[in-house]
UniProtKB/TrEMBL annotation:
Entries under Pfam families matching the protein: AlaDh_PNT_C (PF01262), AlaDh_PNT_N (PF05222)
UniProt domain Alanine dehydrogenase/pyridine nucleotide transhydrogenase NAD(H)-binding: residue ranges: 180-328
Family from the record: Belongs to the AlaDH/PNT family.
GO molecular function: alanine dehydrogenase activity
Membrane-spanning segments: none
The protein's name: alanine dehydrogenase
SMART domains to which the protein is assigned, alphabetical: AlaDh_PNT_C (SM01002), AlaDh_PNT_N (SM01003)
GO BP: L-alanine catabolic process
Natural source organism: Rhodothermus marinus (strain ATCC 43812 / DSM 4252 / R-10) (Rhodothermus obamensis)
Domain of life: Bacteria
EC numbers on record: 1.4.1.1
Amino acid sequence: MEIPALQGMTIGQALLPMEKPLRLREQHRSLRIGVPREVANEERRVALAPSGVATLVANGHEVYVEQGAGVLANFPDAEYMEAGAQIVATPEDLYSQCELIVKVGRPTDDELKLLQENQVLISALHLGNTTPDFLRRLMELGVTGIGFEFIRDSDGTLPIVRMMHEIMGSMAVQIAARYLESNEGGKGVMLGGISGVPPATVVIIGAGVVGEWAARTALGFGAHVVVLDTDLGALRAIEHYLDRRVTTAMASVEFIRKAVRSADVVIGAKMGEGQRAPILVTEDMVAEMQPGSVIVDTMIDQGGCIETSRPTTHSNPVFRKYDVIHYCVPNMPSNAARTATYALNNVLVPYLIEIGESGSIHEALWRNVGLRNGTYVYRRHLTKKSLAAMFGLPYRDIELLIASGL
């Protein structure tokens, strides 16, 4: 008995697959990468070290470095030239020649005028100083903006933030120790004390990476360390990492007030990821601190987590309020410019290579979750909900934009 539906069908026809063309991976493309000299906030770091430039050139990319970009981090132009970079005399020349700009701080108003249509910008965003006008200008230009603060890998880590926060945590304690000395107007005490004299008390607000490294360094000095946080899990983790050598407590108003009142040093280290830092130490708490005590607010570039904080500079780093010394320099790692540059370089170079291997920024964002998470402006849209809420602007989901090809 023949089945009508199968009449005329041959074995060969039955075995033929239904073929569907697949999108082939785009080939490697040489990028023109620009590294400008930093001009804002007495910034001494540079985005790429000569070793990173050499790696990028070896991968087929062209790297343009503005004249003098690495001098303050002790990387002379000659080292960049030996690594294969082209030295460019002016920022105008650099921005006009490059499709991808990688820098430390977000562009100043003058640098914003130099950005080109559809460029890729990789830099810090500094939420405490970001304005809606800045974001609108990037959207108007069709710039793809990728922020250090937002780059989060698939394992949940923020690689650039972590590197800088390790430096900040260690530096915060070194700085506090200096300003506690009598010749700086401090209380005239040593962090670690000596035989028969008790150590200073260091209170750290925040048990994240900054808090952990501040605690490690303070313990190394021999100080008594108290860590407060609103996250119980973070407190458990820091106790585990530091072998229960720190005192921890939940950051309730009562505990914060009591700890701050007795502190020789208060380090603000509570970060709001992708948002402004929360204010946990109020002005009336600072007013109760002992004269000559020291506050180091490491979160000032995110708005600060101590109410009396305001941004200072490397040339004028401190001010006094209620006779308490406040150190609130936004770009603290800049004072360890060479170390911080190597740290940035180690994280940024693999991302730049990934963009080149992908063939386009669109493909790179599709393939690399870290870069995708880091993007805050893409194809004339704001793509971070936290920024949209902060400034009252509309936003579009980055994954929908990439998938739709809009």
